[in-house]
Amino acid sequence: MSDSVAIVTGAGSGVGAQVARMLVERGWGVVLAGRTPEKLEGVAREIGGRTLVCAMDVGVDGDRARLVDTALDAFGRIDALVNNAGLADYKQVHQHDDDSMMALFRVNGIGPVDLARRVIPAMLEQKSGVVVNVASMANIDPFPGLGMYGCAKGALSVLPKAIENEYGRRGIRGYTICPGAIETGMLRSMFDTKQLPESATLDPADVAARIVGCVVGEEGEPSGSVIAMPSH
């Protein structure tokens, strides 16, 4: 697998950083994508290997195009896209204004689908590839206050099956992981430990391991699957 290359969004911390580390340990090249270059550079220093930092915002059209171009220019191939970046806003549906609603859809829905659209031509040329999306249990059964977030993530429940139906016979696989509460900074920006104790959350490393299993072909569920990972 030493020639294989993955793009990982939201790679500056949490699940994304763990995915990047695990892939580097398996000999993969990894393009670390995220909004904060300092965090990405810190992860790159920590994990070593064939890493490339690309500061970008998944919610910005031009940034998504630049990310894919950067990966292809640097490595000449894209074997995996891990759509891990996400944005949450703890409000009931009616409390969202136009801006907050559209921000959720741009980052959680439109951005990941567009990145898949942009990497698939390279994967078709290679006759292989995989897209792994990180959605949420909120797009299966949204906790009150995360309804709009769940709606935005809902596109990722359709994407893996679309990839399997349209490209499975041409060597491209698709999966979506739907974790419950993960012990990350994003979670703690909404819930403190009194509301949601650490014992009731998922370890980012466990979620990352499931994602990496999908990437490298060790996942037991077939391509096209939406995989629930409820928290405790």
Q: Keywords, please?
A:
232 residues, alpha/beta, seven-stranded parallel sheet
Question: What does the model show?
Answer:
45% of the residues lie in helices and 16% in strands. It is α/β, with parallel strands linked by helices. It has one domain: Rossmann fold (3-Layer(aba) Sandwich). Strands 3-2-1-4-5-6-7 form a 7-stranded parallel β-sheet, sandwiched between helices. β4, α4 and β5 form a beta-alpha-beta unit. The mean pLDDT is 93.
Gyration radius, to the nearest Å? Answer: 16 Å
Roughly how much helix do the residues carry, as a percent range?
Answer: 40-55%
Q: Determine the strand fraction and express it as a percent band.
A: 15-25%
Low-confidence stretches: none
Largest pleated sheet: 7 strands, parallel
Task: Please write out the topology.
Blueprint: E1 5-9, H1 14-25, E2 29-34, H2 37-47, E3 51-55, H3 61-75, E4 80-83, H4 98-126, E5 129-134, H5 147-153, H6 155-167, E6 172-179, H7 185-188, H8 204-216, E7 226-229
Parallel strand pairs: 1-2, 1-4, 2-3, 4-5, 5-6, 6-7
Helix pairs in contact: 1-2, 1-8, 3-4, 4-5, 4-6
Quick gist of this model?
With 232 residues, this protein is an alpha/beta fold.
